[in-house]
Structures are given as structure tokens and as C-alpha cells.
Write a structure and sequence with these properties.
The chain is α+β, with helices and mostly antiparallel strands. The strands form two sheets. A three-stranded antiparallel sheet has the order 5-1-6. α1 runs antiparallel to α2. It starts with 7 loop residues before the first helix and ends with a strand.
Amino acid sequence: MINKIIDTENLNLELFELETKIEKLQKFIDCDDFLSISTINQMLLANQMVGMAMYRDSLHKRIKLAEGDSEYTVQVLPNDDGFLNKDIGDGVYFLYDNEGDGKYQTHFTQSEIDEMKTNPFFTAINWDEVKIEPVESK
């Protein structure tokens, strides 16, 4: 599961674009021009509106899930000591294993990862190559 992370920024952009399209389609359906097209085309457009609304609901659920409290490991290098860690005491980030011993954080929430992606400290990291996986529940 390479980069199985849900990018909330892209989901929100997709949702915005979808809602814009739904609004335009609704304006067409509400205007007189809609009545001038065939009944079959009216039904097809109505079905398209329903499908778009269902997809919008699905996007809302995915965004809510992405913003939840799920935790992920962040593997920057492809080896056992290539996982991002954060010292709990002083907040310093470093690469090591993903086991954790209570002295450092090895699991991160989606919002923490999103903050890292915009933090200048992490500009050397190619986030497209980073392996982000959900932590298995125990």
C-alpha cells in the first residue's frame, strides 16, 4: 500500500469542482431551455444529477475519514531505519525504526502529515516517493 494516504487538499478541490458542475447543471435544469430538449435527454440529465449528488456524498465521507484520527507510519527511506520519528521531549525529527519506545513518536495523524508537507524543514523530502501506511489497530 504505497502512499495510501488520502490527500484532503485534493479531495476538497475535487469536491469544489463537482459542486460547481452540479450548480451549473441545476441552473440549466431550472431554465426554459431544459424543457426544449427531448424527454430522454431530460431523464439522462436528471440521472446525471443524481449520480453527481451521490458522488458528492461519497467525497464528503472520504474527507471526513481523511481528517479523522487515523495514524500512519511515514517511511522516507526504503530500509528498516528509514521511518520518520519525532522526539517527544524536544520535538526534533529524525529517521529510525517504526517501533517506538515511548520516548519518540512513530505514528502521525493525517493533519500532522499535511503540516509536515508544508513545513520548510521537510523540503528535502520528495513526498511522492514517501511510503505512508496506516497503523494496524491492535
